[in-house]
Amino acid sequence: MSNVIINLENIDITFYQKKRVIEAVKNVSVQINKGDIYGIVGYSGAGKSTLVRVINLLQVPTAGKITVGGDVTYADGQVKLSSGQLRQKRQKIGMIFQHFNLMAQKTAYENVAFALRHSGLGKEDKDQKIRQLLELVGLANRADNYPSQLSGGQKQRVAIARALANDPEILISDESTSALDPKTTKQILALLQDLNKKLGLTVVMITHEMQIVKDICNRVAVMQNGLLIEEGSVLDIFSNPKEELTKEFIKTATGIDEALVKIEQQDLVQNLPKNAILAQLKYAGTSTDEPILNELYKNHQVTANILYGNIEILDNTPVGEMVVVLTGQVDDLVAAQTAISEAGIELTVLKRGV
Ligand SMILES: Nc1ncnc2c1ncn2[C@@H]1O[C@H](COP(=O)(O)OP(=O)(O)O)[C@@H](O)[C@H]1O
Ligand SMILES: [Mg+2]
After folding, report:
1. Sheet of 276-284: strands edge to edge?
2. I need a labelling partner for 7 at 20 to 30 A (CA). Which of 214, 274, 291, 347 fits?
3. 51 Cα–ligand 1 center, Å
């Protein structure tokens, strides 16, 4: 049986306004597997939210085919479900947003209860369900608080409890942490990760922040001007990005850009000697930095001066990045670069001594 829970095939979404035609989404195909935490990353206006409204069954695409949970929901610009089926399908997809969208005049408890109004549950079952949901998101003691009495993170937790009320298989988060501070963001991401594991929930994370993708996603798609320009496992994309925009997004998540500015200013780099190169090394998986650098000296008499080092765990695999000055005889430097490449480490020369 296929593990694909959301399948988008060649989706176009075009808006026709009086004088303008806006192609918000162009020929996008994506497969999301059950249990994925799937990131869709792109700048504002890339078409992310529009694409989500299609997955969410709120927007009929102009062209293309969509299958959600094994059923074709849209094909060739038409809805393929009855309104009853459509309603049922929508209930299996939870949604959270940047601005929480809670009802201000209702308590946390009542906000969650509202999502259960058509559930058919009896009074006691409903009460039990609501309390379980609030417990699940860590708000058991906040049931009677109004949104105005809750912090941003707590409000988003209420929204998550509400989104989970009808036991969805899919949770879509559209910039759900964009209005939160970094610490609260981490906590909400940890909660989503926990729900993914505990409930087997498939999560679609729409974001403009690659850091979020790095923190919790296992796959990612990059969107630009309505097009999906790159897609893959987070590990592959971070260790081997192909598109310029993807590289730009990754830089924002690794901090190397900031580090590079500082590195550039160092005396050693400003006055790089003739027998030296400034190089960036990237590796993923088993290759580790230390032994190879020792070997460079042992085998080629090339010394490595580490100016920057960073190692992260992406999807259970160590991914490292270093900026080093390699110093040695011309031939030895060439041999050292070959040895590095052969060890499966990606080497980029940033600067050569003159
Ligand atoms: N209902 C609509 N009518 C016309 N244009 C729209 C509509 N919704 C979105 N757009 C346009 O589609 C493009 C993509 O928007 P959106 O999906 O919101 O991007 P993102 O979520 O990546 O910031 C933008 O140019 C936006 O103005
Ligand atoms: Mg958006």
Report:
1. 303-314, 317-327, 276-284, 346-352
2. 214
3. 9
pLDDT one-digit tens code per residue, 60-94 = 999 999 999 999 999 998 999 999 999 899 999 99
Q: What's the rounded Cα separation, in Å, for the pair 298 and 328?
A: 12
**Ligand 1 in reach of 45 Cβ (< 6 A):** yes
- Ligand 2 centroid to Cα of residue 51, in Å, is 9
CATH class assigned to 255-352: alpha beta
Residue ranges of domains in the chain: 34-60+82-253, 255-352
- 34-60+82-253: CATH superfamily: P-loop containing nucleotide triphosphate hydrolases (3.40.50.300)
Q: Are strands 317-327 and 276-284 parallel, antiparallel or unpaired?
A: antiparallel
Q: Is residue 42 in contact with ligand 1, taking CB distance under 6 Å?
A: yes
Helix (H, G, I), strand (E, B) or coil at 174: strand
pLDDT digit string (tens) for 85-126? 998 999 999 999 999 999 999 999 999 999 999 899 999 999
